[in-house]
Amino acid sequence: MQNRRHQLYVAGIGLFLLALITGMIFPSLANPRMGLSAHLVGLLGGLFVVALGVIWPEKNLPPNLDTLAFYLVIFGAYGNLCTTFLAATFATNRLTPLAGSGRPALNWQENIVTTGLVLSSIAMVTVCLLLLWGLRRRRKQ
Predict the structure, then answer these.
(1) What's 29's DSSP letter?
(2) CA–CA separation, 19 and 15 (whole Å)
(3) H-run or E-run covering 26
(4) CATH fold of 2-136, please?
(5) Are 2 and 56 in contact (CB under 8 A)?
(6) What gap in Å lies between CA 31 and CA 92, rounded to an integer?
(7) pLDDT in tens, 22-69
(8) Contact 80, 68 (CB under 8 A)
(9) Distance between CA atoms of 78 and 67, rounded to whole angstroms?
């Protein structure tokens, strides 16, 4: 249990650091508005992962679901930052029309960003559902 907490702390701070670096370079990306989104997604994702490290011992999940939740949160948080960064680099528009560049991106670039955003969203929703379920379950004394 302590090892997972430590791993979540390290992963969260690492993600926060990557978001800070993204914040330094986003003005030079093809779509700076999406770069700002990537920066904010990374900051919030890093804080979320660290917060999960704090509450991790409070949940009661079977070992296989505990492991699944752990890997999904890492995948979802990092995947979201990477995908939004790619969206800023490629200047895609399909799933992010409000922050999109207004310029057409290549179809393969749109497909990569769409796949990444959908998968990371599914991962994070699944993590939240698992953790809510695990927090509601009573621990046996």
Answers:
(1) S
(2) 6
(3) none
(4) A middle domain of Talin 1 (1.20.1420)
(5) no
(6) 8
(7) 999 999 999 999 999 999 999 999 999 999 999 999 999 999 999 999
(8) no
(9) 17
The whole-angstrom separation of Cα 67 and Cα 36 is: 32
Q: Where are the domains of the chain?
A: 2-136
d(CA 2, CA 89): 38
Q: pTM for this structure?
A: 0.90
Burial class (CB in 10 A: 0-12, 13-18, 19+), 29: buried
| Residue in the block written with tokens 């508005």 | 33
CA distances from 46 to 34, 52, 105 (A): 18, 10, 29
Amino acid in position 124: M
In sequence order, what are the residues at sequence separation of 6 or more whose Cβ sits closer than 8 angstroms to the Cβ of residue 124?
72, 73, 76, 77, 80
